[in-house]
Amino acid sequence: MSNSEETALRAAIREKVAAAGTSFYLAMRLLPEPRRDAMYAIYAFCREVDDIADEENPLAVKQEMLDDWRGEIDGIYEGGATRPLARILAADARTFALRREDFLAIIEGMAMDAARDIRAPSLAELDLYCDRVASAVGRLSVRAFGDSSASADRVAHHLGRALQLTNILRDLAEDAERGRLYLPRDLLVAVGIIATEPNAVLHHPSLGNACDALADIAEDHFAQARLAMKECSRRAMRPARAMGAVYHAQLARLRARGWQRFAEPVKLSKPTKLWIALRHGLI
Question: Which end of the chain is more exposed for a tag (fewer CB within 10 A), N or C?
Fold first, then answer.
């Protein structure tokens, strides 16, 4: 791939990420350009395989599309990647020692969504799902940030789960419309909710107790991530601190809103997210 071709591809990826309006965009901006471009490519990959899982296609088609990406991941590490995004990721994998198993874990997480509508999984299954769709992304990210230590992987482990659990609590109504319910069965049964049909669960009077229990688990992961960050390169962890702060603020707002108003959106304004990201990313 020529320099001009790579420059054009990275510019296209950058524009796509900016247009997505993701909260991660602000955190990515804290990175030097080569690391920032690697994060844009990782994010673009995650969006692409996530879209495969969410599209209205037959299961066999989704599986074939995910298999194609598995082949591209092999190509990244063995030579022969054909997709433009995969060719960019191949360069970033060499530069930042991104691991094959983390890319493959993300695909396996999307395969869990593609295979069936997840409804009230066990805590163990939910934890596996979070590891694949979120913490694996974190393990790639901390290497792009500049820290590949065991402590950085612990940050990825806990912060990925914290962010994903916050997303689950934020998106209760949206997921229910898709026939999905990520609230774990263990917590539902503990508060007397036996149903697994999403709308029945979301209108149960004990919903708030189950959501509070899951929010407590997320809070513990946020706390463990902050502890692990203290053992890492402070400069490298700036984006992780920023992302953690933005999502933690969102979790606090969700709890303040209450769980019976689950269909009422809770969003941080762009100025608020920018202030939080800068405050926690630059100090």
Answer: C
Q: How far is Cα of residue 228 from the mean position of the Cα atoms in its chain?
A: 19
Q: pLDDT: is 76 or 3 the higher one?
A: 76
Q: Please say if the pLDDT value at position 283 is more than 90.
A: no
Q: Considering the domain boundaries, does residue 25 fall inside one?
A: yes
On whether the CB atoms of residues 161 and 133 are closer than 8 A, the answer is no
Q: What is the pLDDT of residue 69?
A: 97
User: How far does CA 95 lie from the centroid of its chain?
Assistant: 22
Query: Any idea which residue has 């917590």 for tokens?
Result: 187
> In this predicted model, what pLDDT tens digit does every residue of 142-154 receive, in sequence order?
999 999 999 999 9
Co-location of 95 and 163 in the same domain = no
Instruction: Write down the pLDDT at residue 71.
Output: 96
Return the closest-CA partner of residue 211 out of 162, 260, 156: 260
The whole-angstrom separation of Cα 264 and Cα 58 is: 32
Q: What single string gives the DSSP state of each residue in 119-168? A: BS--HHHHHHHHIIIIIHHHHHHHHHHT--SHHHHHHHHHHHHHHHHHHH
Domain residues for the domain of 59 are: 1-99
Among 98, 145, 150, 148, residue whose Cα is nearest residue 240: 145
By the 10 Å C-beta count (0-12 exposed, 13-18 middle, 19+ buried), 99 is classed as middle
Q: For residue 58, count other CB atoms closer than 10 A to its CB.
A: 8
Beta bridge partners of 181: 119
Domain match, 73 and 175 both: no
pLDDT at 38: 95
Whole-angstrom Cα distance, residue 88 to residue 98? 12
One domain for residues 77 and 169 = no
